[in-house]
Amino acid sequence: MQIFNQAKAAGKEVFQVIIRKPKIYSNSQGKTVDQINGNIEIYDVHFSYPSRKEIMILQGFSLSIPAGKVVALVGSSGCGKSTIISLITRFYDPIKGEILVDNHNIKDLDLKSLRRNVGLVSQEPSLFSAAQMANAHSFISQFPDHYLTEVGERGVQLSGGQKQRVAIARAILKNPPILLLDEATSALDTESEKLVQAALETAMKGRTVILIAHRLSTIVNADIIAVVENGKVADTGTHQDLLYTNEFYHNLFTMQNIDTRVEDSTEGTASIQTQISSRYLDQPATVTESYTSFTLSPKKEEPHEEREMFIFFRIWSGLKKREIVKISIGSFAAAFAGISKPVFGYFIITIGVAYFKDHPKHRVEKYSIMFSMIGFLSLFAHTLQHFFFGVIGEKAMKNLRQNLYSGILAI
């Protein structure tokens, strides 16, 4: 009963998740628009995350984004820039307000259809004819296996800039009219940022782009720059306009210009480090390749018998002295049970011959007693054998499951 009660308590939470009807459902039927131009209107949006409902991230956010224009969002950390990306892709729905794409409320659009028309490049990409446009073809061609190269778990064989260019290529592949760039260059060094920025400029042509930037140098050419403060748009304009009209933007730009001068003084060192990293990618025996071969490539083949013996001893290594005694008793009982068969056969032949010797009755009685003793001893031996081997088998299976589970957790 205790086990059933525990299962019932655990199952209650599981079933609540299973029967929960999500507000945003990918299979829900909605409007399917044949062609999206990319006009985006955000009206008076209020939003807070479900885990922190008391903290309002967006408080009356409104912004108009014309089709084919590049709009950059600038603001301090936590002001709601990335939240806008999540709302446009409909990972969440706003508490109040609405978001329109080509005058269609995104809540009324088919979710799959909406996301097919939106390309997203985030700060940490989760890993084509589009490779050329993404400025990725050149470095892909340098790999020994070209486009067949395995990038490794989470792209361990690629640098940050290379991973970003692959992510851009993947976003371009479906040719979306709307492109969302969520701090795509914030985690890169100066040299990688230039390469990725060149790829982004090519990718942004002819698309509606919402660009969230950590470095203002990447957004100076944007058509519209929106300064976000306290969850709403505080000011909009071009780069030159905001330098004179918005104090926050001016101070941020001035501060980053000072940082850029410091970075330029160390650019030579960074360039040398990048060249060394590039050489490592080309060499056959690099640290990266060694790590990848350790995690992804199959182990060097060991002799089959040695591997089996290792596995066998690992399973039995967890047994204690008490189990060794049980194994000995079970083995002795199994040996006696096995010997009883030929001994029984021997006495059958002997009792047949006893009828032709002197005093056959006495001889047959003696052999009959021996038959009975062998039968009882055989029963006792089989009982001991199955009991002790059953106990040891359960213990060995427990060790096997523990080792297997430990191996899974260690992956």
TrEMBL record:
It is a multi-pass membrane protein. Keywords: ATP-binding, Membrane, Nucleotide-binding, Repeat, Transmembrane, Transmembrane helix, Transport. InterPro entries: AAA+_ATPase (IPR003593), ABC1_TM_dom (IPR011527), ABC1_TM_sf (IPR036640), ABC_transporter-like_ATP-bd (IPR003439), ABC_transporter-like_CS (IPR017871), P-loop_NTPase (IPR027417), Type_1_exporter (IPR039421). Pfam families: ABC_membrane, ABC_tran. One of its GO terms (molecular function) is ATP binding. Residues 329-411 form the ABC transmembrane type-1 domain. Coiled coil: none annotated. GO terms for cellular component: membrane. Residues 40-255 form the ABC transporter domain. It is found in: Membrane. The chain crosses the membrane at residues 329-356, 368-392. Belongs to the ABC transporter superfamily. ABCB family. Multidrug resistance exporter (TC 3.A.1.201) subfamily. This is ABC transporter B family member 18.
